[in-house]
Write a structure and sequence with these properties.
Layout: H1 6-9, H2 18-36, H3 53-81, H4 86-104, H5 141-161, H6 168-189
Helix pairs in contact: 3-4, 3-5, 4-6, 5-6
Protein name: Lipoprotein
InterPro entries: TAT_signal
Region (Disordered): 35-54, 103-132
């Protein structure tokens, strides 16, 4: 191996060298890995201390499942208002139903039956089924899809924000559900000039 010294090339050793940068990066990575492998057992990573971590985890799961169930009701409301969108929304609605079921630990809710002509919402449907984000479903199908996409984004953001409070298994589920929600929002507005 040929060694070239800085004196031979006329280049001084000022500034950061590649070797120093690699050493600093390695030291930073070691510090991060050391912080990740503490001896404490895995559990909810809540900001405050809870007397019962299992109860805190159950409450978090209940709240997130309720949000996904509300989103499912919003899909149902759009389909009831705009039956022509049923086929387009069916796969997304099924995924949201699966998310709600996974978060709640129950089977995914079934799609609503075709509504009677005079009905505004299915009987027994959640209160959110007749409203999107506190308002009624838009008359224009494109506007209804944009509102549904906005609800997907809000739900995805809520799931993402809850990652730090979730136990590792729930955090992985939330990350997956949040990513799916972002994809749904894109698919709902694909081709629209926002």
């Amino acid at each position: 191996m040929i060694t070239i010294r800085a004196e031979e090339t006329g280049v001084g050793r000022t500034g950061t060298t590649r070797r120093r940068a690699l050493l600093a990066t390695g030291a930073a990575a070691a510090a991060v890995l050391t912080g990740c492998s503490s001896g404490t057992p895995a559990g909810p990573r809540t900001k405050g201390t809870s007397a019962d971590p299992a109860a805190a985890a159950a409450e978090l799961r209940r709240r997130l499942a309720a949000r996904s169930t509300a989103l499912l009701g919003e899909y149902d409301a759009v389909v009831l208002r705009h039956p022509a969108l049923r086929d387009r929304l069916a796969p997304l609605r099924e995924a949201v139903a699966a998310h709600a079921g996974a978060l709640s630990g129950t089977a995914a809710p079934r799609p609503p039956a075709s509504p009677p002509a005079s009905s505004g919402a299915p009987s027994g449907a959640p209160a959110t089924a007749s409203a999107i984000a506190g308002g009624s479903v838009a008359d224009d199908p494109a506007a209804a899809l944009r509102a549904l996409a906005a609800s997907e984004r809000r739900t995805s953001a809520e799931h993402t924000a809850s990652l730090m409070d979730a136990e590792p298994e729930l955090a992985r589920l939330l990350a997956s559900v949040a990513a799916a929600g972002s994809a749904h929002a894109y698919l709902l507005t694909k081709g629209d000039a926002r």
